[in-house]
User: Which sequence fits this backbone?
């Protein structure tokens, strides 16, 4: 069975880790592919930084810092501090020394002519990840934010320095109209038995993936059931500032509202199924009324058991949908 996950960042990383755990525990003969958002990538001090990819890479490799939620465990930050002293990096954007090594390797390969897909493969070959990571596109589509006070800035500046406190009017992926899906992303979707939307930020992690011309069509053309997991629990975001992103596109911070934003596949949208938290039972009826199969279950991924259980529920719902 081929599982294809779409997303990026910490929520996606933990979800894929749970899916991997479920596959290993059940002894299922299954492959896991992850189509990763690259729209929050950017250039810093001549280095290409890829936060969503690296969160997933480090988590699956067992190298992530669970306390901070990003970067490598056992980090030091001497190089970042020195770069800041030289004025070569902004003081508000701190990178660990081990993390910087990843960025240096990535940048050297890109400058030597490797594609982003090539770099994903090289970085992923170091550890036994139990999954294969694919960029949504090999093109640079960095996200810029237009804010309510009239400024335009890179998404990372708005997210990390401003902490999303300045209201955003809109998010713009640069040159996305000319971008094309990576060949490996298309191949994985064409062979998918199930497509899973991770509980990632709907606006800046999953949204840009689906906005790459041709990629949304590839999801729908796969014929596989598409099941998503709500990133909203009890009317609040699980982590980060996704509520500020949702507000910018006029979507409430609500499990049902996010499902309706994606839309029902039977009515021209994307979703066949949607999982909401046990804290949000009232979300089930409006989602089902919109033509999306919906279940209310525990969504908190606290450990290997709860994460694997969530993945199992998503696959169970996908199997029910496929059997109809």
Assistant:
């Amino acid at each position: 069975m081929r599982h294809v996950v779409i997303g990026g960042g910490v929520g996606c990383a933990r979800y894929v880790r749970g899916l991997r755990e479920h596959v290993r525990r059940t002894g299922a003969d299954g492959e896991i592919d992850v189509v990763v958002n690259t729209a929050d990538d950017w250039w810093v001090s001549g280095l290409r930084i890829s936060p969503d990819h690296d969160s997933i890479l480090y988590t699956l490799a067992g190298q992530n810092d669970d306390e901070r939620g990003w970067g490598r465990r056992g980090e030091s930050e001497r190089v970042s501090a020195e770069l800041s002293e030289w004025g070569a990096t902004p003081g508000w954007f701190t990178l660990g020394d081990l993390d910087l090594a990843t960025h240096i390797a990535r940048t050297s390969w890109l400058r030597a002519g490797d594609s982003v897909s090539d770099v994903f493969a090289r970085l992923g070959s170091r550890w036994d990840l139990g999954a294969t990571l694919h960029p949504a596109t090999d093109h640079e589509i960095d996200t810029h934010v237009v804010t309510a006070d009239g400024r335009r800035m890179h998404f990372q500046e708005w997210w990390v320095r401003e902490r999303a406190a300045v209201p955003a009017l809109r998010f713009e992926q640069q040159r996305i109209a000319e971008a094309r899906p990576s060949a490996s992303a298309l191949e994985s979707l064409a062979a998918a038995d199930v497509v899973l939307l991770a509980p990632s930020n709907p606006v800046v992690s999953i949204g840009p993936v689906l906005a790459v011309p041709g990629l949304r069509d590839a999801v729908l053309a796969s014929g596989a059931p598409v099941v998503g997991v709500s990133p909203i629990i009890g009317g609040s975001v699980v982590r980060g500032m996704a509520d500020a992103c949702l507000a910018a596109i006029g979507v409430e911070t609500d499990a049902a509202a996010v499902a309706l934003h994606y839309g029902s596949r039977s009515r021209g949208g994307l979703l066949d199924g949607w999982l909401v938290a046990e804290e949000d039972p009232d979300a089930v009826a409006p989602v089902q009324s919109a033509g999306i199969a919906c279940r209310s279950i525990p969504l908190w991924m606290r450990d290997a058991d709860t994460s694997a259980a969530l993945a199992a529920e998503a696959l169970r719902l996908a199997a029910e949908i496929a059997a109809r």
Summary: The chain has one domain: 2-63+115-141+175-322. DSSP finds 13 helices and 14 strands in the chain.
